[in-house]
Every structure is written in C-alpha cells, then in structure tokens.
Input
Amino acid sequence: MLYKEFSDFYEVARKRHIIFFYVGYFSQHVVAAISETIKARLDTAGAAGPTRRRIFSSFVEMSQNIMHYSSDTLTPDDAAENQMRRGSFCIGMKGESFFLLCANPVNSVNVERIRSRLEPLHTMTMEEIKLAYKKALREETPADSKGAGLGFLTMARDASEPLEFEFVQDEHNPEATVFCIKAII
Output
C-alpha cells in the first residue's frame, strides 16, 4: 500500500515534468541545501547558463518571500534572523521552458498590498520592468518590505512570460490566504 501511494505521487510528478518539489519549513539552511540540489538538477536537465541564473534568481526571491511573509511560522514574526516559515516550491519543465511555482499562506489583510505590487507587472513591457527595477534600486526600501522591495521585479525581469498569481482563502485558517505565484523561464 505504501509503495502504491509513492508510485501514484511519482507518476503525477513524472507526467507534469517536475524536476524538484519541496513542501515544508524554509530556513537559510534549507534554502542553501535546495540551491545545491537545484543546481545539480538543472545541470542534468541541460539548462543553459543564462537560464540557470534566471531560475536560481527567481528561486531565491520566492524563498525569501516565504521566509519573510508566510503566516505559518515556527519563529516569532519579528525575528530578523533564523526564520522558519512554511511554504512549497517546485520546478518543472514545459516544452523548452522551465516553470517555478511557489505557494505559502499569508495574512489575509496583506492580500491587496501584494496584489497591488503584482498587477502592474502584467501590463509592463520588459523594458519598463527593467527601468522600474533600476529605479527601485535607487529608492529607499519600502516601509512594509522586509527586503529591498525588488523581489517581484526580479522575478518579472527573469521570466519569459508575465508572472501568474492567485490568492485562495485558506480553508483551515480564516485569517490566512494561500498566495501562489508562477514564473516561466
């Protein structure tokens, strides 16, 4: 029976061309270990150097978003270091492209703020995204950001298509919403 469960999961991952999948708590140590695994998997998948760089860059941004903003945490919300927060991440292939998919719960009161940062990226050209990135580098860090405020711009800059995202009410926690984001590279 256990083998059947594993076999079913493995078959779904194979059919969807998943080359890496993780769900659990993210910390700096976990991200470092995943980074090494991703590098090795991309080498075996034959990804070109620039593609590997964009995938790795987007993975780091997605991981940082989980570690900074996931509402499911094992550490205090105000902890500046050694954060451990729950989320999930996968990389797969679709044709000649790679997709990165990330999901984590966020406090529902933050949904509109996140949406307001992502929606403009859908209508921007790549040149506009690059200009917005350069502008953001020169500006002060946003007050509500735990990073430099460049994460979504970095992912949009690295992606070959507009970022996809969705918010779904967490059925187990009425105060949380699951935030999903996908980048195609």
About this structure: The radius of gyration is 17 Å. The mean pLDDT is 91. Helices lie at 2-15, 28-45, 49-69, 111-123, 126-138, 151-158.
